[in-house]
Amino acid sequence: MKSRLTAALIGVALTLAGLLVLEGLSRALLTAQADLTPEQPDWYRYTPDLGWERRPHFKGLVAGEVHRHEPARYLREFDAQGFFAVDTEQIGPTTRKGILAIGDSNTFGWGVPTRNAYPEVLDDLRADADVINLGVSGYSSLQGYASLIKHFDRVRPDVVIASFSFNDRRVVPSDAAADSHEKFEREAQMHRLDFREKIYLYRGLQRLLVKLHLIKSSGDGSTTVDARTAPTRVSPDQYQQNLERIAQFCEERHVPLVFVAFQDNPAHSEHLRAGIAHLNAGRQDQAEAELRIAVNMENWFSDLARKYLAVVLEQRGATEEATITASLTLPAWKLTHGGRPLRLDSEYNDIARAVARRHGAILVEAGQVLAQDASLYLDLAHPDERGHRIVATLVNNALDSLLHPPQVAAQP
After folding, report:
1. Reported pTM
2. Which residues are in the SGNH hydrolase-type esterase domain (predicted)?
3. Residue 362 φ/ψ, nearest 5 degrees
4. Which of 19, 143, 149, 359 is buried deepest, with most CB atoms within 10 A?
């Protein structure tokens, strides 16, 4: 009787052990399958020459974009060269004038269908020209210049449109994280697929060594910086140099250049701008009140408000509070694209105006027009479809004199 009970218990134990082993194997296999199953690739890929660029043959939705209705309208499709598929047939020799638009997400058309981005609306407005949209979300002026060099000979444009600023102004943890060709090469190398993370034995061994304090944990890579002194992806001086290079590149090829200046959404930066105006006028109490509102709003311009609020606090002797206010924590993923802006749009737009004057380029003040009606923005800085139509109309008016200059009558 006792032996039968023992045998039964052993059988139950072996059955449970077998089930546990099968459960463990199933979980491991399913987890491995999930890791090894190819996912829908991102719309971009990292490259050492541009930092990142559109992924050739991509077709799908861009993560993070606002799709207010009918997601199918917002599908992005790129050809084998990374150009928008709607532009493919326009690249190469044609009887029409060629216009090349380089820029950031406002040129790319973030948040609006491809056909409703201002370069494509401009294309529809001009029967005499083809507009090629080379805007890429997240681009700075340095990436735009590199993109112009890379694609100019293939497109051979008669006019170049350039628009940058927002990403140039975004904070980075150190000078080494500022935009440069060395940074782009590092980032491209770092983002190559690391097969070690697919090997479970490697994962387990790494965790064991961390617990035994034989190696250090990588942590989240967060860095703390002071908003008053932290660098941006592109400094004002470097921004000016990049725009100068774009202008000189076009001058050497006798191609007219048009700069398009955008502005941040006034509804998102109202208290920040009011605080700075009070600070410049010496009204410290009013400046502090407005800037504290801007900080507490915790939006994309709150870090810039912290920078100016720290200045106010320092002026009235609250040094310790100023230091705490100016302290920003940047996660590791901010190294590439940067964090929130740490400089005003007006500072960089003034630089663009000065470069345009020196080189005889046209500057279209699209931001001044859009900022009169905050409802034309989707968010902190991107125009909606109505806004893009307005920008296209403004640029179209500027192009008339470039593509069809008035004929000067010969004197008798």
Report:
1. 0.85
2. 101-281
3. -90, 140
4. 143
Give how many domains the chain has, as a whole number.
Answer: 2
**H helix intervals, 195-333:** 200-211, 236-252, 266-280, 284-296, 302-315, 319-326
Tokens of 280: 């410049």
Alpha helices, H only, 113-227: 118-125, 141-155, 181-190, 200-211
Task: Considering only residues 81 and 71, tell me which one the structure prediction assigns the higher pLDDT.
Answer: 81
- In angstroms, the CA 284 to CA 262 distance is 29
pLDDT at 179 over 70: yes
- Tracing tokens 């060269």 back to the chain, one arrives at 81
Residue 299: CATH number of its domain:
1.25.40
Tell which wins on pLDDT, 405 or 127.
Answer: 127
What is the spatial distance between Cα 243 and Cα 84, in angstroms, rounded to a whole number? 25
Judged by DSSP in three states, 53 sits in strand
Helix axes 118-125, 385-403, angle to 10 degrees: 50
Tell me the residue range of the domain where 111 lies: 44-174+232-265+341-403
Shared domain check, 164 and 54: yes
Residue 119 in domain: yes
Task: Report helix, strand or coil for 98.
Answer: strand
Q: Which two tokens stand for residue 369?
A: 């027009």
> Does residue 120 sit in helix, strand or coil?
helix
- Distance, CA of 85 to CA of 65 (rounded, Å): 19
Report if residue 81 sits inside a domain: yes
Residue 306 — very low, low, confident or very high, per pLDDT cuts 50/70/90? very high
Q: What is the C-alpha to C-alpha distance for residues 137 and 395, in angstroms, rounded to an integer?
A: 20
Q: Is the pLDDT of residue 410 over 50?
A: no
pLDDT above 60 (res 218): no
* Chain centre to alpha carbon of residue 104: 7
User: Which residue has 């109309």 as its token pair?
Assistant: 393
Could you tell me which residue, 218 or 159, shows the higher pLDDT?
Answer: 159
Which amino acid does the sequence have at 202?
Y
What is the spatial distance between Cα 257 and Cα 245, in angstroms, rounded to a whole number? Answer: 12
Q: What are phi and psi of 323, to 5 degrees?
A: -65, -40
The gap between the terminal CA atoms of the chain, to the nearest Å, is: 130
- Measured CA to CA, the distance from residue 264 to residue 382 in angstroms comes to 8
Local confidence band at 203 (pLDDT 50, 70, 90 cut-offs)? low
409 pLDDT exceeds 50? no
Which pLDDT belongs to residue 407?
A: 56
Whether 144 and 179 have beta carbons less than 8 Å apart is answered as no
* Side chain identity at residue 103, one-letter code: G
